[in-house]
Amino acid sequence: MINNSKLKIMSIFGTRPEAIKMAPVVKKLEETDGIESIVCVTAQHREMLDQVLNLFDIRPQYDLNIMKPGQTLSEITCRALKGLEKVIREVQPHMVLVHGDTTTTFVGALAAFYNKTKVGHVEAGLRSGNMYSPYPEEVNRSLTGRLSHLHFAPTEGNKNNLLREGVREENIIITGNTVIDALLSVVDDNYKFDIDILNEIDYKNKKVILLTSHRRENLGKPMENIFCAVKDVVEKNKNVEVIFPVHLNPKVREIAYSILDGLNRVHLIEPLDYEPFANLMNKCDIVLTDSGGIQEEAPSLGKPVLVLRTETERPEAVKAGTVKIAGVERENIFKLTDELINNKDEYDKMANAINPYGDGKASERIVKAIREYFGERN
């Protein structure tokens, strides 16, 4: 049993995806007796992070605000490490919580290690087996795992990955994924968008495809293939509408607009905040994405997902049948998408498969495990 009257738990995150998945954990920490919740953001992504903080009413006690235009991974790492070390020394938390696989995640764990502070890793144990895909996330999460004391694994498969790497079983807790907690809290069947075109689309009678693509490893020819395949799908299927919130990366935007701009029934829009994006997923029919988190979110809403990558660190979804790997070749992406549009049996098989990522109670399990780890079982 610790001597302090309250457990100090510091949550560290810096990007929109981390904030979404950590928000329900932070809220659960805040409402739990005996815990002092401290939030530190690096703001590795500034504007997109702030949108989520406002949505979930999270007010960080520490904001490093490290984002700079054109920042490199090395620059993010150095600025975040220097800032986080100072905060951890000042706060002296009993445990630092980090999430997933960003540069902030790894550096947060490293700064905690340098200060001999315990680390809890939310969304632990994901592995693609290829250190350069996704890049740099695959290495970030592996290194974070080496520095962590508690590993909150979303699935049995994630737990098995950690066991193979020598993590002690008693330090692994299967929780489900916190993204389901967050998603279920914001989706509303009667949701109205601020963007007129999103309200005007006939979701009942059209086949609506939600497209996202932004990964570094897809820049160049792979991304060109993706967008050309989408163009082929739209030109063949007159009942299809595509909605593409285009990432702010100038390289992504250049390729997207050169291939898809001006096409009938293709809507290139600005990136959406989390709440409208989640509700757009709920209204669409099919999701094409190279994102990681969407592979978990969309299946919980009964939406088939085609992954625009050559491998995934989320094989549970593939095994469950909610996700298929479409790769980055134009012909294969077209073939799989066209099949989902025109083959009801194939569509229903994916849409009705059981989501492997949990029941929306992951945050509750994480906080319970933290209390038990420090001997506070009341």
From TrEMBL:
Keyword Isomerase set for record: yes
Record key words, sorted: Isomerase
Pfam families: Epimerase_2 (PF02350)
UniProt domain UDP-N-acetylglucosamine 2-epimerase: residue ranges: 27-370
E.C. numbers: 5.1.3.14
InterPro entries linked to this entry: UDP_GlcNAc_Epimerase_2_dom (IPR003331), WecB-like (IPR029767)
Enzyme type, top EC level: isomerase
Gene Ontology molecular function terms on file: UDP-N-acetylglucosamine 2-epimerase activity
Family stated for the protein in its record: Belongs to the UDP-N-acetylglucosamine 2-epimerase family.
Protein name: UDP-N-acetylglucosamine 2-epimerase (non-hydrolyzing)
Organism whose genome encodes this protein: Caminicella sporogenes DSM 14501
